Amino acid sequence: MKFTKAFISIFLTLLLIWALQTKLGVVPPLGKFLSPADGFWQNAESKNILLTRDLKLKGLQGKVTIKFDENHIPHIFAENKHDLYFAQGYMTATDRLWQMDIQTRQAAGRLAEVIGPKVLDIDRYHRRMGMVYGAEKTIKAMMADPVIREMILAYTDGINSYIHQLSPRDYPIEFKLLNYAPEDWKPVNCAFLLKLMSETLAGGSNEFAMTNILRKFGPATTNDLFPDYPMHEDPIIPVGTKWDYFKPLPIPQPSAHFLASMTDSANTRPRVEGIGSNNWAVAGSKTASGYPILANDPHLNLTLPSIWYQIQLSAPGINVYGVSLPGAPCVILGFNNNISWGITNVDADVLDWYQEKFRDAKMDEYWYNNQWNKTTRRIEKIDVLGQKPVYDTVVYTHHGPVVYQNDVQKSDGADFVPVGHSLRWIAHEPSNELMAMYLLNTGKNYDDYRKALTFFSAPASNFVFASKDDIAITPNGKYPLKYKDQGKFILDGTDPADDWHGWIPFEHDPTVKNPPRGFVSSANQSSTDPTYPYYIDWSFASYERGKRINDRLSVMTKATVDSMRILQTDVYSIRAQDILPAMLKYIDPTKLDATQLFAYHEVIKWNKNVSANSIGATVFGDWWSQLYNAIWADDFADKNLQNNFPSMDRTERLLLKEPGSKWFDDIRTPAKETASDIVNRAFAAAVKEITSRCRKPGANWRWGKYKKMDIASLSRQPAFSSGNFESDGTGSTVNALNDNHGPSWRMVVQMGPKVKGYGIFPGGESGNPGSFFYNDMFKTWNEGKLKELLFMQSASEQSPRIKSTYTLTGK
User: Fold this and answer.
1) What span, in angstroms and rounded, lies between the C-alpha atoms of 419 and 770?
2) Which of helix, strand or coil describes residue 612?
3) What's the number of CA atoms in the CB half-sphere (13 Å) around residue 243?
4) Residues 205, 268: Cα–Cα separation, whole Å
5) What are the strands of the beta sheet with 491-492, ordered from one edge?
6) Which of 31-45, 271-285, 675-689, 794-808 has the lowest mean pLDDT?
7) What is the total count of domains within the chain?
8) Cα–Cα distance measured from residue 322 to residue 329, given in angstroms and rounded to the nearest whole number
9) Residue 659, preceding bond cis, omega within 30 degrees?
10) Average pLDDT value for residue range 688-710
11) How far apart, in whole angstroms, are the C-alpha atoms of residue 193 and residue 198?
């Protein structure tokens, strides 16, 4: 008996030791993770950082001084540009190493290496999308430029200098949770980060759904429900702008392909309406200082740590402040002593799907231009944690990678013909966006701004500009030359007419400088009115944010930085202004129960501001959502239509101008519903939904309570997130906080003899959840405030905001 107890005790002890050293599913080896010497305890940081620190780093050519302000933002002063980018890489890795690693893995299709088979499909999709293929072409182009080559290599060396000094105890906590070690940074990783941004801003598509809609409803109905230009619009380049500064190229002729033959098996990542960004610049004639003011707030998926990293970079020939992408050198959005710039997404149609026809199942040849052509192949090896590697053979046509391989499709004869869908995407093109950033970082005037844009291919972006003399905006990118609506539906891979036919010349991109109205702006709406001779896209963001911005800027005089801050946080609903009266006219208050009557009175007295404490905002928001779905859900129930409903703008037109339309009828019921029936049904459903979630009418019905927000961590660990918080705004207001998307960086720059910048993002500089600087700027951001940015002119400049100093020298 004693022997048995001893044996069991020894066995359990050995089992415990094994368990503590072994990764079990998603659980890291607990022995290592809990170890006081090397485990998560080592990731806790004190608010009190070292006042001074001297570091000797192999690879530096001179002395670098880094000043840290109260938010631990690094202000880097170097004696040469090599050391400047080396120090940028070193400091970015110090604060954001795991973020850089995991986002690079995501873009490269390498998540399964450290997470396991559950993310294998994500990796396979990114490989088939050609992310690696595109990054390799881009880094080759960048490294061919000696200026950018030196920048990338220095930045890479700085990152690796930090990685090489780490021991396991120093690893960021996510490495410990996932039980893997950081690997050396490679130059191509800088390109991966840019490709990831291209995917974020231009990776969604609806061509498969649109093709199925065309097949189901026919051309007339499809063109009516999905028009090429909306009812409401206030385009980026003002209406009436003349295009006489260039002679347009001939427009290609459309293909004669038969869309009914296109297949519908792919379910791509859809475009999402109601996610956007804002930027504008106001001329000195409209400001209190007499000098221009620029504002930018790119709206992206909000995460902890932030997608952005604040930094100042200063060396001979450069002194710039703004935000960078962790993993890529330069400042992406920011200002220097002479110019400022900001970016929003154009949403250009630079991603197209082609249906390819192959000779046989081997897919060695595809039919194009009336002959069989050879395909090429790329073998993608995907390593998977705990399993053997997966090998995926990706077939390429001249259009690009075949992302989707379909079941065979029956031809006119007895045979079956294999088909697939290839991807033509601007992100596959060689490009040198870092040169654009470098020229902006060092730019002095409007001419430098224009030169910089010639290097920026993707993602197509609305670049707003201000100097002390000029303002401008350019919806800029490398745009394929297409016929109208080319890419609205699946394209015919067999027909050369459906190819991209070269590029719109940069000089023909829509642009405006110092317009008479005294401002320029963008909010992802249409780039131009229909008179612009080229096709950029058929669908853009709804006009509401752009309309509100332009309305406010039009009447603004003696504008200040605070005027811009207030506009960035504006939550007035143009949508409610447009359609709420039409919705209310169908409601008979005498037929409402007590709860519905409460909702009715709240929305009637509502001031149309979507503020956190507003009950009317909750009623209108849910009511409109219910109405939108009630109108379209029956007609678009077919799964192949992928819930690709007509736009909000088209739905507003239905309500305002076509109250007798057949689309109000719910085809799932025997009755024939009218606009009045659907509006009333949607109102009742909204009140029921709000009551279900918020209980009895009262304070719990406030918008901030109803629409809770949470900024999740990149690791998806709830303990590392912001937790729920109340917020103003919705997707159609200038402050477009919606579904965990929102202003990822608010920036306002006052130009003049002495440039002053103001900015904030939701989070902090550090990616370490155990750091005081992980989330220290969130409160300021959530309150809609800005911080003056400490734009130093030299390392010797004195400021009470400087809390510590690092001195870096070579070994």
Assistant:
1) 52
2) coil
3) 16
4) 6
5) 402-405, 419-425, 351-357, 491-492
6) 31-45
7) 2
8) 12
9) no
10) 94
11) 9
- Residue 409's pLDDT band (cuts 50, 70, 90): very low
Q: pLDDT digit string (tens) for 483-525?
A: 999 999 999 999 999 999 999 999 999 999 999 999 999 999 9
Tokens encoding 773: 């600087």
pTM above 0.85, yes or no: yes
Residue 226 to residue 221: CA distance in whole angstroms: 8
Q: How confident is the model at residue 31 (pLDDT cuts 50, 70, 90)?
A: very low
Give CA 237 to chain center in angstroms. 23
CA distance linking residue 694 with residue 702, whole number of Å: 9
Whole-number percent of the chain with pLDDT over 90: 86
CATH number at residue 641: 1.10.1400
Instruction: Output phi, psi for 563, to 5 deg.
Output: -60, -40
Q: What is the pLDDT of residues 580-616, one digit of tens each?
A: 999 999 999 999 999 999 999 999 999 999 999 999 9
- Please tell me the distance from the alpha carbon of residue 63 to that of residue 54, in angstroms, as a whole number: 11
Burial class (CB in 10 A: 0-12, 13-18, 19+), 553: buried
Mean pLDDT of 131-147: 97
Question: In the structure, what pLDDT confidence band is assigned to residue 367 with cuts at 50, 70 and 90?
Answer: very high
Indicate the residue type of 40. F
How far is the C-alpha of 264 from the C-alpha of 354, rounded, in Å? Answer: 12
Give the pLDDT band of residue 337 (cuts 50, 70, 90).
Answer: very high
The answer to the question of residue 608 being in a domain is yes
By the 8 A CB rule, do 436 and 453 touch? yes
Which residue, of 652, 687, 706, is where some domain finishes? 706
* 315 neighbors 328 (Cβ within 8 angstroms): no
Give the DSSP letter of residue 288. S
Check residue 274 and give left, alpha or beta (phi > 0: left; psi -120 to 50: alpha).
left
Assign 518 to helix, strand or coil: coil
- Residue 456 located in a structural domain: no
CA–CA dist 740, 735 (Å, integer): 13
Better-scored residue on pLDDT, 26 or 183 = 183
For residue 460, which amino acid is it?
Answer: A
What is the rounded distance in angstroms from the CA atom of residue 521 to the CA atom of residue 553?
9
pLDDT in tens, 430-482: 999 999 999 999 999 999 999 999 999 999 999 999 999 999 999 999 999 99
Interatomic CA distance for residues 126 and 132, integer angstroms: 8
The three-state DSSP-derived secondary structure of 466-496 is: EECCCEEEEEECCCECCCCCCCCCCEECCCH
Give the ranges where 21-116 is alpha helix by DSSP (H): 30-34, 81-108, 112-115
CA distances from 771 to 53, 376, 391, 626 (A): 18, 49, 40, 43
Q: What is the DSSP string of 217-243?
A: HHHHHHHHHS-SS-SS---SSPTT---
Mean per-residue pLDDT for 193-210?
A: 85
81 by DSSP, 3-state: which? helix
Q: Is residue 20 part of a domain?
A: yes
In 3D, which of 546, 527, 547 has the Cα closest to residue 537? 527
Judge whether 168 lies within some domain. no
Task: Tell whether the model's pLDDT for residue 560 goes beyond 70.
Answer: yes
Contact 609, 571 (CB under 8 A): yes
| CA dist., res. 464 & res. 278, Å (int) | 10
Domain range for 5 is: 1-34
Mean of all residue pLDDT scores within the chain: 92
Domain end call among 663, 689, 706: 706
Q: Closest by alpha carbon to 176, among 4, 35, 358, 352?
A: 35
